[in-house]
Amino acid sequence: MNAIDPEVAAYHLQQSKRATEIYVSGMAPEPLALEWRQVTRTVRKAILRTIIDTNGLRDVYGTLTQTGKHILVLRHLFAPPISQDQLKLVAPLYPKGAEKQGSRLSQAAAQQFAEQFSNRRDKFLTPWLNSNAMPTRQQVKRLLDTVTPMISSQIFNTVRRNRLSDEQELAVEQVLQASGWGRVMSTTLESPSDVPAKSYMRKTRCRSSKTATKEVDIACGVDSKLILAMECKVSNDATNSVKRVNDVMDKVKSWNDTWASFIQTAALFQGVVLYKDVARMLSSEVEVFWSHDLDRFVKWLEDAS
Fold first, then answer.
1. What is the CATH number of the domain that holds 193?
2. pLDDT tens, N- to C-terminus, the chain (305 residues)
3. In a domain, 287, yes or no
């Protein structure tokens, strides 16, 4: 860990506070309420579709061998609801990517999941399964009224964060192009020269070991010997701040071990990001920028090029 220059520390402390102020100012009640209603409607439909496709939750195994799109709903019917990481512990054959991609499970993985569902399901919310019957309208309504807010809360925060992150990356692209940088086709980065000077790639992958790669939000070719690997992070709250910073720190170690001085990791922050989390990155020689002060990012590129 390296000491942080007092002037740099003061700047980032001020920007951390400013980023929170900007985020809070964007939390107007009406737009948030409208976005929330849209999410809850989508989630409600997804729960109903899960009930229908699984024949009233009576054929979890058969459904999962066809698609993984119902896993999110099904794991929220556990008592208590279970995360993907926790699910992986009790059902080791479960492939975490199946939920996001909607890909079908192998027969063995589906069987393992179905057994866990049978053992761990919330019997208060799914009483009809005790007699292998179909649910009544009242039972379906109770399940919807209970589970919809739980899932919606998670999805709402993720959707909002992803939307802001997309806007964040677009803003970076705009300042790069305004500064004369050009976008090139994304490819797996194997050497510093893979990104031409004054060019950038969006959503590419960078070698992190001999056999693995990690995604880069924006890779900038500073010169023939240096790539700036920028991670764009939006945080909803203080807890999320830790997670977003940990995401970056995980990549820092991998890239430093693999690339040494040929790569410079950077983070562009927006939202609620605590200074103590920023300080961890600064101490690890990560370049930190803020969405509301992109001029500083442009200046860094000019000085480094």
1. 3.40.1350.10
2. 678 889 999 999 999 999 999 999 888 888 889 999 999 999 999 999 999 999 999 999 999 999 999 999 999 999 999 999 999 999 999 998 899 999 999 999 999 999 999 999 999 999 999 999 999 999 999 999 999 999 999 899 888 888 888 899 999 999 999 999 999 998 888 877 888 999 999 988 887 777 778 888 999 999 888 889 999 999 988 888 898 888 888 888 877 777 777 889 999 999 999 999 999 999 988 999 999 999 999 999 998 87
3. yes
Q: Is 20 found in the same domain as 46?
A: no
- Token pair 């039972």 is at which residue? 139
Question: 10 and 37 share a domain?
Answer: no
Token code pair at residue 51: 């009930």
How many Cβ atoms sit within 10 Å of the Cβ of residue 26?
A: 12
Tell me: do 134 and 169 sit in the same domain: no
Q: Which residues pair with 288 in a beta bridge?
A: 267
Q: Which domain holds residue 57?
A: 29-157
- Among 157, 184, 218, where does a domain finish? 157
- Please report whether residue 43 resides in a domain: yes
Residue with tokens 């790539």: 227
